[in-house]
User: Fold these one by one.
Assistant:
Number 1:
Amino acid sequence: MKSETLTKTIIKGFMPARNKSSRKGDNGKVLVVGGSYVYHGAPVLSSLAALRTGTDLVYTAIPKNNVQATRAISPDLIVIPLADSKLTRGSVNKLLGQIPKDLDSATIGMGLAIQDIEALKILVKSLLDMDVRLSLDASALVKSILPLIKGKNVVVTPHSGEFYRLFGEELPHDKKNHAKFIEKIAKKYSVTILLKGQTDIISDGKRTFQNSKVDSSAMTVGGTGDVLSGIVSGLLARNRNSLESAATAAYLNGLCGKYVQKEIGTHIIASDLINALPYVSKTFDKIK
């Protein structure tokens, strides 16, 4: 099947509507799990991006040594300290007892230090059993997780290196063949893949989109992928369709990059994308 280029018209059809009589929590409850001693900012960027996407409540689960700094960054975050400095079975079991039972979506892996892969498996399986829609990134993209997410409502957001680590297959040398290859792998594992690059490729194995970011060369700065993960989770919280949520997230993230680069040139930082989100997103807002 031929891939489609994402357009404003397509994205408008994918954007979930907001009920004008909704109350707190009706527009999504998101869990963000990430962070480490070095990468304390990654889950913060994801969490703030999820909020700016329109999510009502975001729970940010981070290593206990990062709690004070994270709480100081923003009063908008609901911070849940993990019991250990890395992801362990004990910290996961305690976390599962602390989070709301009616979560809509979760994103896992941004800057996350994982001590025990079994802990990651327990977390992923437990959330899926709770009917939570998942987005996995960075350190959560490991091959041993594939059997758990196959056929589930899951988005994975690798760059080319993480793609190889997750699926054990290298992308074709010719970029013209990337879309067809991604579609094949997405179909094989029954997941939605958002391959990050100068041109994002998004596929669930049935339908494939491409999103060019050639006018956003400044988006090579660290943290833009963390912002993307937050947008994905924010959209998944209101739209159960993983392909539509991933495609919309890629498009909005790219629009933010173009918007900011036009304003300040190539001197952007990842949090600039979060600040731009309301301005690029409002044209797609729907209220019913």
Number 2:
Amino acid sequence: MKDLRDGQKDPSKTKTLSGELWKDSEIVECIGCIDEANAFLGLARIFCKEEVLRDLILKIQKKMFSVGCEVSMGERKIDEKDVEWIENTIKEIEKCIDLPKSFLILETSGETAFLNVARTVVRRAERRAVTLYKKGIVGIHLVQWLNKLSYLLYLMILFASNERIYV
């Protein structure tokens, strides 16, 4: 590795809430996935036609900051109440839609496309969070919450979609 001049910032490191970390660390990778998912949620919210979905996305986006904070600091921010909230939200949306009986193309509009990208990035964040959970860095509730979030986003896609394209 090349030496840096005095006072020059190391471009291979980044500052987090818990201090400076290598940019390729498991923690930074998970934080990046959470941030990326949140950005796609924001895009979906802008394209969303249903106010109820826009409000729900905003609640999720705000909670994503707590998720990122837990990953960054290792302090438990996501708890049983958060998991219960997302499970109850899932039950409410399941009452409003017909679940498909086969595979389908989920991207039928801008909002469903962005929600689907957010869903897949959340799944990646969940995989990264499992690694951190096994090392004792994050709690099981964070992993559960991300797991439930990907399913909730799937349901939100079905709710928002005006058409079904079956495979």
Number 3:
Amino acid sequence: MPCRFSFRFSPLVLTFALAAGVTACAGNVPHDEVAPEEAVDVLYTKGADALDRGAYKEAAKNFAEVDRQHPYSSWALRAEIMEAFSYYKDMDYDKAIRALDQFIELHPGNADVAYAYYLKALCDYERIFDVKRDQAATRRALEGLQGIVQRFPDTEYARDASLKIGLIRDHLAGAEMDVGRYYLKRHLYIAAIGRFKTVVDRYQTTSHVPEALERLVECYVALGMAGEAQKNAAVLGYNFPGSDWYRDAYNLLKKKGLVSDGEK
């Protein structure tokens, strides 16, 4: 079943920027900043209105015009972020990332750079579909979210990123399990062991570890490696003693005569 995570985080930048666009008036704009076509506040407000009614392409176009016509105004910085956000809302993630990369490169010390990194990571996060697809976007999202936690640990972006990191790690473990099961079903035990060990070693806190340990028991039994099978069953029994996966592993070992009746 497709695995897509929804985004419900309300960016502070959006609230701040929209408020600035709605409350400003043309009289506050210096004469030398008035565009030959439209005043900066008019352009910005058009973008904000389009964004509010869900016309995201139109919103992005108007915010881009703010930056093009008034590149040295204070409005331009806000418009750059809002242009990227409009592309994000339109699910045009490649354009959003390009706009965000430009903002980060040009304004590395800006107060909104944490949000720019966060929104960039979300562009990859929103492209996570299911475990059967290529996981390149998933890994980029993980790297981006981990970077936010490291760079901006005291922000709400970091708190939200931490929650998403847990979901991504579980998703990546699920992808490894899917490939491992494929190999196991075709009796490609060495290849399957590599996938299941990756889950156990790299994704120890995910929900897939009990099954991975049981699958390792299956693989080692099939290869005649009794010691390795017993070792993984022992780890499974110690950490997940009441799980169905442990019962399956125990019953398999018992069936093969690799465990005595007195053991549990």
